[in-house]
Design goal:
Elements (H helix, E strand, L loop, with lengths): L2 H8 L3 H40 L2 E2 L7 E2 L3 H7 L2 H32 L6 H14 L3 H10 L5 H8 L14 H11 L2 H12 L3 H9 L4 H29 L3 H6 L13 H11 L3 H29 L5
Antiparallel strand pairs: 1-2
Helix pairs in contact: 3-14, 4-8, 4-9, 4-11, 4-13, 5-9, 9-11, 11-14, 13-14
Length: 310
């Protein structure tokens, strides 16, 4: 029997295929149902509820009272909200570039083909898993205290260190250093991107007399720019949502003198300490707008410095 005849014999009837199509659709919907249910109940409905509550006066105990845009007008007149935005912007604009620089620097070192690369990669990635945990924040608080490990080390050289977390001038810096310590995730992504750059580009540049610095700025950075952009956007969004470190180090107060009053911490205070849930919901939507605005600016500016193969 010819191959064409065998294929004709095995071909399913058109009617059977038509009958099985609705059955396949129903099976797909059954498997998708848990995810769709979770999306609606855990994501869509809470988002819609928070948007409604942002236009109400709500204290978690009484029914919401619609007050229009009063919460948004009140935000414009809240000095502590302005202070929390200032602290958060400093944290983002200083902490994110430092963490990105540390991640790229370590990735460049690991890309040199070190022996035991898997071990070093795991060790540098570990802080990313622990950096935002309560345990690490408590440990960092103890290390940076008046009698902490940092001041004990400085005392060896006769230097009397300050209370790093109790001094308004240094409290935010300690949290920024903690965030920089958790550079492992972008470092792994940078390392993967570096491994994809063809070696022939570096060989050709070396033949033309280009040194390591020139190769970095003329080859590595341009070809790695999509990875830099990806890490930048994710790191920025995560930095705007930072909460745990400031909450633990300041005991939930944002002190000293509101120097660690992150926006999310102030939002928590309004919503779950003062039970001003309507105002907290409005603050949450302002944060969404800020993150969306910064992300949109990054995408707009990426056309000037991000280079793709095509």
């Amino acid at each position: 029997m010819s191959a064409i005849g065998e294929l004709s014999r095995l071909r399913r009837p058109a009617g059977r295929a038509a009958r099985e199509k609705p059955r396949d659709t129903k099976a797909a919907m059954v498997f998708l149902a848990p995810w769709l249910l979770g999306l609606v109940l855990v994501t869509v409905l809470p988002i819609a509820a928070s948007l409604y509550l942002s236009f109400t006066k709500y204290d978690l105990f009484n029914a919401p009272e619609f007050i229009g845009i009063d919460n948004y007008v009140r935000m414009a007149q809240d000095p502590r909200l302005a202070a929390s935005l200032g602290v958060t912007f400093v944290y983002v604009l200083v902490g994110v570039p430092l963490a990105m620089g540390a991640a790229l620097g370590i990735a460049l070192l690991l890309d040199k083909g070190l022996r035991g690369l898997a071990f070093y990669r795991s060790m540098f990635y570990l802080p990313s898993l622990l950096g935002s945990s309560v345990a690490v924040a408590i440990l960092w608080k103890q290390i940076s205290g008046v009698d902490g490990l940092v001041n004990q080390f400085l005392a060896i050289f006769g230097i009397e260190g300050p209370g790093w977390i109790s001094n308004p001038d240094t409290a935010l810096s300690t949290i920024i250093l903690l965030s920089v310590w958790g550079f492992g995730a972008p470092m792994v992504i940078f390392l993967a991107g570096l491994r994809q750059i063809p070696v022939m580009y570096y060989e050709a540049a070396a033949m033309d007399g280009a040194g390591s610095v020139r190769q970095f700025f003329s080859i590595t950075l341009p070809l790695l720019s999509p990875i830099v952009f990806f890490n930048l956007v994710l790191s920025m969004i995560g930095a705007f949502q930072a909460f745990t470190q400031a909450f633990i180090i300041s005991n939930g107060s944002g002190g000293p003198s509101d120097s660690t009053l992150f926006y999310t911490l102030y939002l928590y205070q309004k919503g779950f300490t003062a039970f001003d849930m309507g105002y907290a919901s409005a603050m949450a939507w302002l944060l969404v707008a800020i993150i969306a605005g910064f992300t949109a600016v990054n995408f707009a500016l990426s056309k000037l410095w991000v280079f793709y193969d095509d």
